From TrEMBL:
<dbReference type="GO" id="GO:0006081">
    <property type="term" value="P:aldehyde metabolic process"/>
</dbReference>
<dbReference type="Pfam" id="PF00171">
    <property type="entry name" value="Aldedh"/>
</dbReference>
<dbReference type="InterPro" id="IPR016162">
    <property type="entry name" value="Ald_DH_N"/>
</dbReference>
<keyword id="KW-0560">Oxidoreductase</keyword>
<feature type="active site">
    <location>
        <position position="222"/>
    </location>
</feature>
<dbReference type="InterPro" id="IPR012394">
    <property type="entry name" value="Aldehyde_DH_NAD(P)"/>
</dbReference>
<dbReference type="GO" id="GO:0004029">
    <property type="term" value="F:aldehyde dehydrogenase (NAD+) activity"/>
</dbReference>
<feature type="domain" description="Aldehyde dehydrogenase">
    <location>
        <begin position="12"/>
        <end position="445"/>
    </location>
</feature>
<comment type="similarity">
    <text>Belongs to the aldehyde dehydrogenase family.</text>
</comment>
<dbReference type="GO" id="GO:0009737">
    <property type="term" value="P:response to abscisic acid"/>
</dbReference>
<dbReference type="InterPro" id="IPR015590">
    <property type="entry name" value="Aldehyde_DH_dom"/>
</dbReference>
<dbReference type="GO" id="GO:0005737">
    <property type="term" value="C:cytoplasm"/>
</dbReference>
<feature type="active site">
    <location>
        <position position="257"/>
    </location>
</feature>
<dbReference type="InterPro" id="IPR029510">
    <property type="entry name" value="Ald_DH_CS_GLU"/>
</dbReference>
<dbReference type="InterPro" id="IPR016161">
    <property type="entry name" value="Ald_DH/histidinol_DH"/>
</dbReference>
<protein>
    <recommendedName>
        <fullName>Aldehyde dehydrogenase</fullName>
    </recommendedName>
</protein>
<dbReference type="GO" id="GO:0009414">
    <property type="term" value="P:response to water deprivation"/>
</dbReference>
Amino acid sequence: MSESESDSEVFDAAAATELVKKLRRSFTTGTTRSYEWRVSQLESLLKLSLEHEEDLCNALHSDLSKPVLESIVHEIALLKGSCKLALKELRRWMAPEKVKSSITVFPSSAAIVPEPFGVVLIISAWNYPFLLSLDPVVGAIAAGNAVVLKPSEISPRTSSLMAKLLEKYLDTSAVKVVEGAVPETNALLEQKWDKIFYTGNGRVGRIVMAAAAKHLTPVVLELGGKSPVVVDSDINLQVASRRIIAGKWGCNNGQACIAPDYIITTKEFAPKLVECMRQELENFYGKNPLETKDLSRIVNANHFDRLTRLLDDDKISGKIVHGGEKDKSKLQIAPTLLLDVPRDSLIMTEEIFGPLLPILTVDKVEDSFDIVNSGTKPLAAYLFTNNKKLKERFVACISAGGVAINETALHLTISTLPFGGVGESGMGAYHGKFSFDAFSHKKAVLYRSFAGDAPMRYPPYTKGKLRI
Ligand code: NAD
């Protein structure tokens, strides 16, 4: 049972205060700091993922019609990988890092000692509800914190399953799930936390940051944005088309934070790109994609209506070159390509987060840089080219949370790379060791003996002491 169900009918500010007190008491005992506790919790999370794969796939299917392969590969396997990596590396991550000291304090030594922040809050989003909830939990536990997780109410089956499973598998004196929506989140946000880790949209990101500011609580904000794909003409067109499709529709039907949001290519190359993408879309999803089982559905009617509004914008009338069919009863919209949409159309002014993919055209591929840099900084930016100079310029000149060349989305799977945004796509990062770091304070420690006590630092401050 989740905290909201087990402890009280309504999870209000008083219940939240009680919960934080309880967790703070646990944290203060020092249990969560021990290597053994961290390992036992990580092993249990791994066990949970292994023993409940089918339940998780069913919950994800119920919330999003997520195809089983996507649930296993994009959510459960990535979580397992994070647990395994943390278990393998934990001793090394926890070890103090010796650093050079200074002659001014000779003899001495210095070290950076990671310590847990304390009691942390993780608020997660609905689109990858299992991974986005538990991947930060792996980092928080590895770093030795007590944790409250607030999953998204928009994916209720996965939320309640996680609440049930975490209660069963993890130490409930230090790890709690609070289910609920805005009132419950607000009750939690009123509390003093030692760190808040939020995944979701920037509007709520601002609410989270304002609440955190009251207590000077540090935050990680994992947000979104419009992630561009720049497509040059000297490419393997089929591979590029397939990889764009995989990163867009193959990732929760475009409802992914790093899904390609729009393409920029040259006027000359656009027809070839459209033709190839059409062909590959048909190869992957058939002639009637509203019937396929290989696409997640739109999560709910609100999001379906939001996407419909983007398509109904007069400014893009006649711009659909592929797809556009929709069925509200199934909450499904076919993979849709739009060509030459105006930059002031609705679809180009907000994050799409769905199966629509507009294509902008430019005279020269280099002109795409100004378009990308004129918007807010995206979470991801993609480039398809064989041109070495263009790759170098893209990496140097495009500011984004992450960049992938001749690929989409998969940079997220590389645990040695930090995952996070910049500017309006977020702040802070996680994955691999970066998850441990996100939930650790790096404490500066100086060790001295009683030797080498220099009289010149003490009063009286005579002129002679200035001559150093
Ligand atoms: P969401 O609606 O599930 O909201 C996220 C969390 O915020 C939920 O737990 C929800 O309960 C809480 N919330 C919602 N409104 C609130 C309010 N008014 N006050 C307090 N809390 C509130 O998810 P979403 O925001 O629709 O998620 C989609 C967005 O998240 C997109 O912008 C996407 O790009 C971004 N995203 C980013 C990442 C990343 O890792 N950077 C991952 C997934 C999604």
